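Researcher: Structure for this, please.
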Amino acid sequence: MEKTDLEALKPFVKPLLKPLFAPIIKESIKEVLLEIEKEKFEKQTFTKTEVAEMMNKSYNYVTSLINKGYLKTTLDGKLITGRAINEYYNEIEN
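Model: Predicted structure, token format:
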């Protein structure tokens, strides 16, 4: 086929391919954006109060999770990383 033949087919093929590939492309974009958001979240640090609000639990509950070793903090013990929160939730799910 010549290039001109392909150009002539383009108006007919494009409407057929769009419904097939659009959901796949949308899902791929969602996965990439979710992964980017996850990476941003894991780099953030939060106070115990902020984590308690996120988890809809009390400050004392978060402190007990830290003391029991379920939730990890930074070296100074004052901040909790997003990664530690994700690890905690992954442990709960398994």
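Researcher: Any notable elements?
Model: The chain has a mean pLDDT of 88. The chain has two domains: 1-42, 44-94.
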